[in-house]
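Recall that a protein's primary structure is simply its ordered list of amino acids. Everything else, from secondary elements to tertiary packing, is in principle encoded there. The following example makes that idea concrete.
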Amino acid sequence: MSPSAISAEAVPAVTTTEQPQTQVTLGGKIIAITGANRGIGLGIAECCLQNGAAKVYSIDLAEPGDEFAAVLKRFPGKLGAVTANVTQEESITAAVDTIVEESGAIHGMVVNAGRTNHKAALDFTKEDVEALFNVNLFGAFYTARAAARAFIKLNIKGSVVFTASMASYRPNKRVPSAPYGASKAGVRNMAHTLAMEWAKYNIRVNSVSPGLVNTAMTYWVPQQPDWEQQLKYYGGFPRLAEVQELGGAYVYLLSDAASYTTSIDIPVNGVIGIC
């Protein structure tokens, strides 16, 4: 669906005569999550399925592995995988089209695919910076736009939830990454702006900012020789979050219980934030 096909006359009035939903549930919803073959994305998928989602699709460039297979075994027929490259708009659009063709609808998109690279700003190459921004920022924009076009075409009150980061609020002093933090700050700003633009289509746009999460990308954190001392200094919960602990924020924002919630960011950082 081209942008020109969405005319001002086609914009629905933002009114509701429906009884507000008070239960946080994803019953009957089709949810797509980019980068959900493992890590945070797969943890979000698991939480969505535990909260009644009819089906969850992972949109990922990598092949599903053992972690994905384990979740699929628990939810047979309810977890799907579609291959796409989020840095290519035509690829992510085709993935959304595939989901709609298979399931007849799409109700929520979690824009989660991302990459990280931690080193001093003067050590980043041009290729390093472009690789981060291509996935974290440009890919996020393409994904959100593909979802929004599908919601509008299907006349669905959809929800877009971005995965931002606590690094978008303040720097990681131990392992800085100016491009990563900047890309995630861009994601948060994008969520606010898209929420304003797409409210007229009954599309809600929000973000979640995880702190330190126990994934393959953060294996090094507890291995630091002064990790215990860092925890004492920063306070909060003395551990990393498990991926499933982020899921509640996403489930809420995807659910109809959040029907009047848009343009917000939910930090899930256990107080310690960035160490």
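Residues 120 and 176 are 6 Å apart (CA to CA). The helical segments are 39-50, 66-74, 89-103, 126-154, 178-198, 227-234, 247-254.
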